[in-house]
Design brief:
The complex is a heterodimer of chains A (about 180) and B (about 500).
Chain A lengths: L1 H19 L8 H5 L8 H24 L16 H36 L5 H22 L10 H20 L3
Chain B lengths: L2 H12 L2 H19 L5 H12 L4 H26 L8 H12 L3 H35 L3 H12 L10 H15 L2 E2 L6 E2 L13 H17 L22 H6 L1 H16 L5 H15 L11 H25 L5 H12 L8 H4 L1 H31 L5 H20 L2 H19 L4 H24 L4 H4 L3 H27 L1
Antiparallel strand pairs in B: 1-2
Helix pairs in contact in B: 1-16, 2-3, 2-4, 2-16, 3-4, 3-14, 4-5, 4-6, 4-13, 4-14, 4-16, 5-6, 5-13, 6-11, 6-13, 6-16, 7-12, 7-19, 7-21, 8-19, 9-17, 9-18, 9-19, 11-12, 11-13, 12-13, 17-18
Classes of the chains: A mainly alpha (about 180), B mainly alpha (about 500).
């Protein structure tokens, strides 16, 4: 059922995109008048048409295949285990909180919470692991590879990131890097 | 200067202990950079630039070439062990490398990847030294319609990737092609399919999508089945054993074909290692006697992808040195460094400064040989991570995915794209779509559309004239047959029955 719903939603979404979102700005006049140019909407529209046809056939195939299948119900759609839903929520949330919380807090929270989600029961060990890996990844990417990891927009967390950066730069200057 | 003189003078440069040590250092740095997700070959070369500021021009080019070649190879380590392609060109390596690692054959997969990389790199280095002017001329005579036909041939694999699910594989490939349309159109920069989001105007960045679909999806799948992954059965460390001579002999034509195709694709401006590895993987799927085994963990798939992406590195150096035209982004970074050093890239290089061509060749040869041993050592270190319980390893992969996506452009939007791609990967898996086909469409989509548009305009909207050229016409005819055969052949069989 999940497959059918996804296919139907995809089909509807593509139909909507075909009519309303292929082009988000007008085609320049000169391009529109030139008969020898491929208009910017032709290629994506051709792909969408092919997709609409293929997905429609796929939907018919799914319905045919599951005719008489007693497990083919809406309830079966929610079979996915709660842990996987939480995993998805955590990954998506991490991508959104990276900017306000910054690298340090996000990394620590992801390592700690995802570790718990994956069944780690030694909370103190997990806590120490999260702190150490956060620092290790920071050293590898920020110090060695000069990747400017986000500091965060929340003042307290930003100040903490700046404090860690200060400590790292004083260590760097002490060892002559 | 004769070819032999170029050959010997190149190796005499590397006899200098300082230069030789710099090559080894570059291989270590390049392999580690390549293995880290989000650090592309271009970024690795850019990060290696500061080391060259104090060097003389010849050691500088030797160093940068070594970083470039080894970073492409390094990408295969994490692709095989963790399903995280370290560089985009290693993405097809995950299709067969990761299943092999899961079966406890990580050692053999790494052995094939490193050996094939070395062979691809050596063949392209030889081609660069001996056929540079001819290859450049041949590549420059490729018109947009020819390049479109080459990429279309790569797309014709779609119906072959999963013979039991042709329709779903086709849908996945078309979705990839549609995703490649997001952002500005390649000819007139008109915004398309951005749904009003400013963050999508530049299009979808390849690395976050690859990391999301491959690495994050895998961790999300494992969330419900907590387990300890082991690289080799009963052994936490990877025994990087080279495959037997028989196995190497079995893939000799794969290595030969992919070395040639990879070198040619590397020469084409705008193509590069990623396109080369996908095209060779698709070509080998078509030509294989057992195409249904591709994607299940066979050495042919790894050899195709890794030979091609390393062969493309030598290919990219050909137009850079002989014409001053960089074949890809990494070559462009190298070009800027060489120009700063006073190197006159172009047709006169061979006349006025032949030492640079010979040094590049020697560096590529030595790098591709030494890289195998250095990469084995680094792979063993990376493989230790596999012994870590998954409750620790899973979160580390998620964080590497986040940082890797962010580091590409220092953009939070890329992290969001990675997360969405991760969820999309789960949906694709649940709907029995094919993520490899989607990535193939995404990788080839941009170059396919751009060249089709250019060819359409050049031929004054005449489709017949577009494919009247011998290369384009032949390739298109072959592609159409390859594309339709898996769909049409069952109908013939039914009639026969």
């Amino acid at each position: 059922m999940f497959e059918l719903i996804c296919n139907v939603l995809l089909w509807a979404g593509l139909l909507y995109a075909y009519f309303f979102n292929v082009l988000e700005a007008p085609i320049p006049d000169r391009t529109a008048r030139n008969p020898y140019t491929l208009k910017p909407d032709i290629w994506p529209k051709a792909i969408i048409i092919l997709l609409l046809v293929c997905i429609a056939i796929n939907i018919v195939n799914i319905i045919r295949k599951n005719r008489g299948n007693t497990d083919f119900t809406f309830a079966s759609m929610f079979d996915m285990r709660i842990r996987r839903w939480l995993g998805i929520a955590l990954v998506v949330a991490a991508s959104f909180v990276l900017e306000p919380l910054g690298y340090m807090a996000t990394c620590f929270l992801v390592l700690f919470l995802y570790g718990l989600l994956l069944g780690q029961t030694h909370v103190i060990r997990l806590f120490v692991f999260a702190v150490l890996v956060t620092l290790l990844l920071y050293v590898v990417f920020s110090v060695l590879l000069s990747v400017n990891l986000p500091r965060g927009t929340i003042p307290e967390l930003r100040n903490f990131s700046l404090y860690v950066e200060g400590v790292v730069s004083s260590v760097k200057s002490a060892i002559g890097m | 200067m004769s070819t032999w003189e170029l050959f010997t003078s190149g190796f005499s440069v590397l006899m200098d202990p300082y230069t030789f040590l710099m090559v080894i250092f570059a291989i270590v740095v390049g392999t580690i950079f390549g293995a880290l997700p989000g650090v592309s070959a271009t970024m690795a070369v850019a990060l290696g630039l500061p080391f060259t500021y104090s060097m003389a021009p010849v050691p500088a080019i030797v160093f940068l070439v070594a970083v470039y070649c080894s970073s492409i190879t390094g990408g295969s380590i994490t692709a095989i062990l963790f399903k995280i392609p370290g560089v985009p060109s290693s993405a097809p390596t995950t299709f067969d490398g990761y299943p092999m690692a899961q079966r406890g054959e990580a050692g053999k997969a790494l052995g094939i990847a490193l050996g094939a990389s070395a062979i691809g790199g050596l063949v392209s280095a030889l081609a660069m030294l001996t056929l540079s002017p001819q290859l450049t001329q041949a590549a420059l005579s490729f018109s947009p319609s020819d390049i479109f036909a080459v990429t279309f041939m790569g797309l014709s694999i779609l119906t072959c990737l999963d013979s039991k699910n042709v329709l779903r594989t086709l849908i996945s490939g078309l979705l990839g092609l549609l995703l490649a349309c997001v952002g500005q159109d390649p000819m007139y920069a008109v915004q398309r399919l951005t749904f009003g989001s400013g963050e999508l105007i530049a299009g979808l960045e390849m690395i976050p999508v690859l990391i999301g679909i491959f690495a994050v999806t895998e961790v999300l799948k494992q969330t419900t089945a907590t387990k300890k992954l082991s690289a080799d059965e009963g052994n936490a460390s990877v025994n990087t054993k080279m495959p037997s001579f028989r196995e190497w002999w079995g893939i000799k034509w794969v290595l030969a074909r992919c070395s040639v195709i990879g070198t040619i694709i590397g020469i084409l401006p705008g193509a590069g290692a990623t396109i080369a590895s996908f095209l060779c993987y698709s070509t080998e799927t078509k030509l294989s006697k057992h195409p249904e085994k591709f994607g299940t963990g066979i050495i042919d798939g790894i050899a195709a992808s890794e030979t091609a992406n390393n062969a493309a590195t030598g290919g990219a150096m050909v137009p850079l040195l002989s014409l001053g035209i960089p074949g890809g982004n990494a070559a462009a970074v190298m070009m800027s460094a060489l120009v700063l050093k006073g190197v006159q890239l172009g047709p006169l290089l061979l006349v006025n400064q032949p030492q640079y061509l010979s040094a590049t060749f020697a560096s590529m040869v030595v790098t591709n040989i030494l890289m195998v041993f250095v990469a084995i050592g680094i792979a063993k270190i990376f493989a230790q991570i596999l012994a870590v319980p998954y409750s620790y390893l899973g979160p580390i992969i998620i964080m590497l995915a986040i940082i890797g996506s962010y580091a590409t452009n220092m953009s939070i939007a890329d992290v969001k794209i990675m997360a969405i791609a991760g969820v999309l990967g789960l949906v694709i898996s649940a709907c029995h779509f094919n993520s490899a086909a989607l990535i193939l469409g995404l990788v080839l989509g941009v170059i396919c559309e751009g060249n089709f548009s250019r060819a359409y305009t050049i031929s004054r909207a005449n489709l017949v004239a577009m494919f009247a050229r011998p290369v384009a016409g032949t390739l298109m005819a072959v592609s159409v047959v390859l594309l339709l055969w898996p769909i049409v052949s069952p109908l013939f069989r039914k009639k026969k029955d």
